[in-house]
Design a protein that fits this description.
It is built from 16 helices and eight strands. It has a domain of about 140 residues. A three-stranded antiparallel sheet has the order 4-3-7, with no helix packed on it. Strands 6-5-8 form a three-stranded antiparallel sheet, with helices on both faces. It has a two-stranded antiparallel ribbon with strand order 1-2. Helices cover about 50% and strands about 15% of the residues. It is α+β, with helices and mostly antiparallel strands. Strand 5 and strand 6 form a beta hairpin.
Length: about 350
């Protein structure tokens, strides 16, 4: 059994963030990164025939891709469907969305329903399904108020799809400021459609300030996550500069400011803090067979040098909140120094973080 202490030690020793220009671009991963990704994929693929959890995790690796490995949603859905047939909860949610929204599968409510109905009343995807039902009158009369209430609950529980719907409703109601709030939440929850919607509003200055750089970055994020329309928009725009955050043993030191009963408090954001969060999240059920974790994401820094939103590209294992925990550290309460390690302004730019750690 791996103890929490040994796990934390492993994280502190092996979590190696490569940030901004210190990290290689996605198209040119290092040979070491490619080898690590290949080894992990082989490890999980070997376990997949013997465990629905491993089948689902292998599907996640295939869907997300990794260093040197291109994403493959079609194959991933085949794996999710196998895991879902054996009762794996996350895989059932994946198949619910696929058939409900027509993402990677032909839209088919008859096939979606059994998956969606098996998820439990508090699951964000199940709540989205219930809201969709009330909105469209699938199993009974339409009820827009009930639908909106359920979409809001679904978004609060973690559905980017629900946040997107509520953002679009706010646009239709002539409330662009509220729409921005919902789209931003959808971005944080991983909705590529929300990324495009927020980017459009930022590009036009609709519902708030204009930020064409953040819009460009969001289009690029959605494109890297597989959205073809976003790729078409991103390719015609000049790329956003990355922040030189970490280089040759030096790194910027972001600070988080928040209020307590005793007043305002400011503290540095450290790697050890992130490691502690992750150590509390690693599931004991996987410690015996899956000895590696990974997360990769990018964050955009606004004009006030505060992080606006972060977008996750890769997470393993899925379903245990590693990337979400890291994002919570690098949220809008975190502010960067005025300049990066090259003396360039940090405002209006992004940084990327890549974590890969060994358990043992």
């Amino acid at each position: 059994m791996i103890t929490r202490h040994s796990l934390l030690t492993a994280l502190l020793l092996c979590a190696l963030p490569t940030v901004g220009r210190a990290a290689p671009p996605p198209s040119t991963p290092t040979p070491e990164a490619i080898e690590a990704a290949r080894n992990l994929r082989q490890q999980v693929e070997k376990m997949a025939p013997h465990s629905s959890e491993a089948t689902m995790e292998f599907g996640a690796l295939v869907e997300q891709g990794d260093d040197g490995v291109q994403p493959d949603r079609a194959t991933a859905l085949d794996l999710y469907e196998k895991a879902a047939a054996k009762g794996q909860h996350i895989a059932r949610g994946k198949m619910c969305r696929a058939y409900l929204l027509g993402e990677g599968r032909s839209k088919d409510l008859t096939k979606a329903a059994p998956y969606c109905n098996s998820l439990g009343p508090e699951d964000p995807i199940a709540l989205f399904w219930a809201a969709y039902d009330f909105q469209n009158g699938i199993t009974g009369p339409k009820d827009e108020k009930q639908a909106l209430d359920l979409y809001a609950l679904s978004a609060a529980n973690g559905s980017g799809d629900a946040a997107l719907v509520l953002g679009r409703k706010a646009i239709a109601d002539g409330k662009p400021e509220a729409a921005r709030v919902w789209f931003r939440r959808g971005v944080k929850l991983g909705s590529t459609d929300a990324m495009i919607a927020l980017a459009d509003m930022l590009d036009e200055g609709k519902g708030g300030h204009r930020d064409s750089s953040e819009a460009t970055w969001l289009y690029a994020c959605a494109a890297r996550l597989g959205d073809i329309s976003a790729a078409a928009k991103a390719v015609s725009r000049p790329p956003v500069a990355a922040i030189n955050f970490n280089e040759k043993g030096r790194s910027l030191t972001p600070v988080r400011t928040y209020r307590t009963e005793k007043g305002s408090r400011t503290e540095k954001v450290s790697i050890s803090e992130v490691a502690k969060l992750l150590s509390n999240r690693y599931p004991e059920s996987l410690q015996g067979g899956m000895s590696e974790g990974a997360a990769r994401f990018e964050c955009y820094v606004g004009a006030d040098r505060r992080i606006d939103v972060c977008v996750v590209y890769h997470e393993f294992p899925v379903g245990f909140g590693f990337a979400d925990q890291i994002k919570q550290v690098f949220d809008e309460h975190v502010q960067l120094p005025e300049t990066d390690l090259d003396g360039e302004p940090t405002a209006g730019r992004f940084f990327s973080i890549r974590w890969r750690w060994q358990i043992g």
